[in-house]
Amino acid sequence: MGIKSKRDKFQIGALLLPGVMVFALFTIYPITKLFYMSFFEWNFGTMLEHPFCGIKNYIDVLSDETFRTAFVNTIIYTITTVPGQMILGLLVAAFINSIPRFRITFRIVYYIPVITSWVIVSLVFRYIFNTEGMLNYFITNVIHISTANIPWLDTRAGGMFVLILLGIWKGVGWNMVVFLAALQSVPQELYESAEMDGCGSIAKFFYITIPCIKSTILFALVMLTIGGFNAFTSIKMITGGKPMHKTETVLTWMYYKAFNAGEFGYAAALSFIVAITLILLAILQFKAMQQSDSVE
Amino acid sequence: MKKQSTKKVLALATSAAMMLTAFTACGSSQAPSTTPTQQTSEAQSEEAKDDSTNGDTVTINFWHHYSAQSAENETLMNVLIPKFEEENPGYKVNAVSHDWSDLHDKILISASSQTLPDVARLDIAWVPEFQKMNILVPLDQEMSDFEEVSSELLPSAMSTAQIKGSYYALALNTNTKIMFYNEEAFNDAGLSAPKTMDDMLAAAQKLSGTNANGQQVWGLDEPALAGWNVLPYIWSNGGEITDENYTKATGYLNSEATVNAVKMLADMYKNSEFTGFNSGDIPMTDGFGTGRYMMLLEGPWKTSELAGAYPDFKYATCEVPAGSAGSISVLGGEDIAMFNTANKEGAWKFMKFMTSDFAEEEMAKCGQIPVNKEALDSDVVANADYAPFLDAITTAKARPPVASWSEIDNELTTAMTSIISEGADVQETLDALATKVDALLAE
Amino acid sequence: MHTINKQKTIQNVILYGLLLIGGVFSVLPMIYMISTSLKPNGALYEYPPHFFPKLSQITLENYVYIFNQEKFYLNFLNSLVVAILTIVFAAIIASALAFCIARFRFPGRKVLFALVIGTMIIPGTTLIITQYQLATYFKLTNKLLGLVPFYVAWVIPFSTFMIKNYIESIPRDFDEAVYVDGGSIFTVFFRIVMPLASPAIASVSIFNFLTAWDEYQWALTVINDNAKRTLPIAISGFFGQHQFTQWGYVFAMSMASLLPVLIIFICCQKYFVSGLQTGGIKG
Fold this sequence. Notes:
The structure holds 3 protein chains of 3 kinds. Chain A has helices spanning about 5-35, 55-65, 65-100, 105-115, 120-130, 135-140, 155-185, 190-195, 200-210, 215-230, 235-240, 250-260, 265-295.
């Protein structure tokens, strides 16, 4: 609609004002300031004066071995949890969509991990995966797969495994809800005509369902990638980055550098690198999806 | 126009309220009778209460790391603070408990945002660091009765608060670690108290293995690999981490004696005789109380903790096992300090109260070794049987009182972890660590 | 016809079976949590460990302890206040933004929408340093209500995005009818769009409620006093790093904080799908 009268202008302005203010103050200003800070030496020690140091912080970040470990961990976490959650979530959604009864019950059951807070589920997982915990007892003394307790939380591989498992477990429900919404909007006629052509359930799933919910898949992909990079509380509570910062992710390392070591300039540069990586990833994902669209 | 917009604001507010009702209706089963507006005003009035000067009462914010469920915290909240508030009308104390490492970080963060508390209980190892940040008040310069107050406290403990000729805190309590061991297991195996490093190694070798349930048992436990944990082993075996003046680590931290001491721990870990510092390990008290850890070095607070959690468990204590250099434990303890943003009058009153013989005696009942001379002579201390700890304190050494200690400690922990749990070469790792520490000491 | 029915039955049995197995895995950790919270603290390192406490062992001592702590109610209330204020402000601000972006071409519209998308992509935690400085500047640190503006700022991009997509699926005929009758933009927003978009608003509000209810790191960083702590911080406070952890208390408190969310979810669960369904996600 075109905006004509003064009243219209005023009213649109009034509606936009709070949101724009929030963006300006709590998002644009912090990002700009962060960018600015990343070029300065900004430590607990130099709280009052911040000498300009060019791209030193960026060089420090990129040449820091712990950062590289953290970055690799984040990538591993993301490329395992994202497909893991999506595939399981889509399967559960497809199953729930095809059963005649108890749909709501299953929906609630699968959604419980999503609504449970990260602090709680992290503590529960830590308790389960303790070296002397229930799981190890089950593995060594009940089903006898291993003779010795597995030190889940004490190695990089073990720690990452637990974090990934938690990430997938907690995310399936969200994907289920998102995909369930999408599945219910797929036109029923398409399935009916496919059935006429003698398509089985699996064929229908791949030739009708998947193409129809492509935009949802993209949406979930982008959101979950962001979520993967955002992983924080679980790492803090379960491994704390141990052993020797080998299970840090980019954000936990950033937080450690900022609030434990007081190297704000370094942390600002790190944050910026993460933000840029994510924006590039998102663009890439959109592009890839568009391309596959045009191929068809 | 103006009138119109106020009306719209009202409309906005009403729609907000409607949404709110819709939402609380959803969850009404768990939140009866409190409407959001009530809650908000409650929260606001609470904030008003916490402002440090509100009419005639002054609130003193006090941060500490007595753990939230400990006897010390109970004493603080139920005995000491009520008594202080009664004696000093017009003052209120808002005590906040933090985890030990959180407290350190919280102080750093709050310093950057000017939201420091008035008073804090600080690990003696942190005092130089905070002094260097210029956030502590030099008490001997600003408090006229400082001499009088400090003369009641042990000079050796007060020395932890002295930096470059000025005092930045009052000593609050002191401690050190001694050996706790599982008496029953030792008796069953025909072992006597592990008084020397060789005894300890022999006992660890003999007692480690599997118990009747087929569960792993470890001879020695340390809950972390920081300086506080590994230094007694290094020092007692003749190792050092820096020279006497805390200016150099190379030649000390990578000396043969230090290397051998660290090697000893690494070998014990390799032989499954030593653990506790991995994320998945059984926590110290539980492991000791359930017979999974046989020996550990701990402070006086462990006694009341064990009595609370494992009252039937039988253990005994002795000094830190002696090595080639004798039995050298690590000196711990806390100081109480005020920050330069504090309400100085109230903060000083509270600090004097906390170091008074009354408060120190009360804290002594829950395992805190007093530094107030009068409290040390009291019956409480005599009955608490701190004797082994008091003896150990005379030979214990302090961690280097340097501003960069926290950073050095982080580097030390990382190096120890890579040696002990990852099997990195001891000499090489310590050489590299010494170079790093040299740089930190030079700062 | 008969075979098709039989096939359907077999298929259903398989589906129910698979869903049941998955369902068990999804609630198993929670069940373990409940069972641990019913065990006495001393039994946590017993041998052999029991998944369920023995009947004779079942105790409510952990719950009694938690519910006797005055702090618990305060922490609970704190979380509730923060979460409710967050969803209210976020709902109003985000739907106003979404409405304008969806319906009008005003200067800067594209920039604004790009901002919405852009900030949705950048994790909130990356901005924690400068947001902390901001909080300090506005004296919002160590204030319960100081949490709210930041939570609102975090959830607005996603909320705006979702609500905007939903509003775009509402036919403009309704708006036009109001304008023809001489109604203003405000009238359309409050009388038409807000009510019609309420499923989307409700569904993002539930997400926002969870975000605020759940939030840990920011609250841990800015809140100092016990009395102002929110539930996640209070729970993690029971978890001692080096000493011994009273898991029974931890899990009893976790259960007590999970229950209200569960109830809200079960009451409002129909909004989840319906809000996401109608054009909620169109990319």
